[in-house]
Amino acid sequence: MAGLLTRFRSVFGSNNTRNNDSNPLPPTGDSIEVCHPSTFSILTAQYGFYSTILGNIDDQKPLSLPQKLVLTVVEKSLADQQKRIKAVPRLPSVIPRLLQSLRDPKSSATHYVQIINKDPAMSTAVLKLANSAYFNPIGKRITSIETAVVKLGIEGLRTVLSAAVMQPVIQRKSYYYTEFGHKLWTHALCCAVACEQIAKQRGLEPFKAYLLGLVHDIGKITIFSELSSQFQLNQNQEQNKPGYAAFAPLMQSTSETLSHTVAKDWSLPEEICSALAQQINLTAGKHIGPYAHILYQANLICEIYAIAKQDDTQMPAAEQALQDMALPDNLFKLLDSISVQL
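User: That's the sequence. What structure does it adopt?
Assistant: Structure tokens below.
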């Protein structure tokens, strides 16, 4: 991958020092300039990240005519609201309640405990996350939801519960690239944590930023799942299994737009929908809002983190990117604490 990234940097690399994020506390007004770190651009990180979840892009197989038709059908289908709603899972009902609790000064963890205890699967998922190294750094085993509430507090409970209910939405299985859903879920949770940490650093609402990171790639998993289903329906011979070129280009060109559209279909808060909209065709030099800027930085550094975890020769460049964007020094350690148990 090191050679591949070198080629990417020669075309898309960030070698303009003006694009170096050097302000540790960007303004929280209406407009913040998008700046690349010195070692990665948006496209360099994006291509490298796709190679970690779909394999080496040099291994592309030419698309057959039926595969090209599948791409066209899926793209048109996801542009149609009625067909899209059938393809995208419903937003878990807990999420609007958690968002509402941010505006309710009388909000209590007791209500969420009751919700969780009514659903054994949810209880299991919450406890598993609550016992992860990130949420439970001390390591003392949490065995009940009531104990989790005491340990996590209502803010921690919000994040754990929202992750628990979103995991099956994002981590969907497929006949092709069986690890894709797991890897994308790991990225989504890492991005959510990064958003939360940056929001705290910038004085913005941590849970809203966390949820933004959690849902930002719903477009990718939707496209991937629909393509997988259609390819499998039209698959006749094993040697014609679709490769990188059958999945990545459509996700790269339309996933941000689809994530924004799904967020609107789900009636998520305007700040979240707007932040997602501002990721579309994002380039250095553009000016975006505070939450959009948090998502841009969190997603970029998490893609870089995934690249460095697969190829440790990229870690110095990743560390430099972390420094250039003035992100928390311990961010990679926090991401390690998530990844190790997922």
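The CA atoms of residues 169 and 220 lie 12 Å apart.
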